[in-house]
Design brief:
With 300 residues, the protein is of the alpha+beta class. The protein has helices at residues 7-16, 149-158, 270-299; strands at residues 47-48, 55-59, 64-71, 78-82, 87-91, 94-95, 102-106, 112-117, 126-132, 138-147, 163-166, 171-175, 180-187, 196-200, 203-204, 214-219, 224-230, 239-245, 251-258.
Length: 300
């Protein structure tokens, strides 16, 4: 069940599309390892590596890898069995199912026997048994969880409250005659807003008013963006502007239309540049006077 998985870890898995060994382990699994052989026969009898992951999480449509590490295998064989229907999937390196998504792999000189399930589906979730052909047989159980990223995303944002904000606030300064360009971003909404209204002070902005030069462009998606453009800004266009989507609280900024003046916060340091230029000019004059004086002394 997806509910048993930490959402943050599953979201990370969805974002990376990776399932590195051990990274998908989750607590509380159903895996078990048979007891180790009695003292004196441990060198010869097969045994399982208890550190092998007993729980594996895979993404829908991606490959799932179930690992089984068997020490001292000798001439025994390793089989993979699906517990849902007790179907023998693989024996050694051979596949015993018509479902070609299942494949066993073993790297020579290693203890690893891996069952690969290509293009995993949610129906593949369940318990798988890695079985060694001893008498009696020895078994290692792995539980596979298969999750759908779309379901994870919906669960991650189902409790999030839709919100709106206007970029660049809370105060924006524009020159008179320029264009007021406001961008409203609506996020964490399960679906795009049905509409987005813009307000100047407490009045809904009319796009076909006598003033003219006002336009709105709204791009809907996972995050909805609405743009308000007011051309040829005049002092009367100063004031509070608000973005009010249908599914979130409104967001506001205050716009100041400047008639040539510059507030202290918007000084660009031009005075500092003038002082620097003046200092450079004085240095050049001093260098020139020094060169002329030196030439006069040499001539005399």
């Amino acid at each position: 069940m997806v509910r048993a998985q930490p959402l943050a870890r599953l979201l990370l898995l969805c974002l990376t599309h990776l399932s590195p060994p051990g990274a998908c382990d989750v607590a509380g699994g159903a895996g078990s390892v048979n007891s180790l052989p009695a003292a004196g026969s441990a060198r010869l009898a097969p045994s399982f590596d208890a550190a092998t992951p007993k729980n594996v999480t895979a993404l829908v449509g991606k490959s799932a890898y179930l690992s089984c590490r068997v020490r001292n295998l000798g001439n025994r064989t390793v089989s993979w069995i699906r517990h849902r229907d007790l179907h023998i999937l693989t024996v050694g390196g051979y596949t015993y199912t018509s479902d070609q998504r299942f494949q066993a792999s073993h790297s020579p000189h290693t203890d690893d026997w891996t069952l690969q399930i290509k293009w995993a589906q949610q129906r593949d979730a369940g318990v798988y048994e890695c079985q060694v052909s001893t008498q009696p047989v020895r078994s290692f159980f792995v539980t596979l969880h298969v999750v759908d990223c779309d379901e994870i995303y919906q669960r991650m944002f189902s409790d999030a409250v839709p919100s709106a904000r206007i970029l660049g606030g809370p105060d924006l300064h524009v020159d008179m005659g320029s264009t007021i360009n406001l961008t409203c971003l609506i996020q964490f909404s399960p679906e795009p807003p049905a509409y987005v209204f813009w307000y100047h002070e407490d009045e809904v902005i009319s796009y076909d008013s006598a003033r003219g030069g006002v336009s709105v462009v709204t791009e809907k998606g996972a995050a909805t963006t609405s743009y308000l453009l007011v051309q040829d800004a005049a002092p009367a266009d100063s004031g509070r502007y608000s973005c009010a989507p249908s599914n979130a609280d409104l967001a506001s900024v205050r716009v100041h239309v400047l008639n040539g003046e510059r507030p202290a916060a918007m000084q660009t340091g031009s005075a500092g540049l003038s002082d620097s230029s003046r200092a450079i000019a004085l240095l050049l004059v001093a260098s020139l006077l020094h060169a002329r004086l030196r030439s006069a002394l040499l001539a005399s």
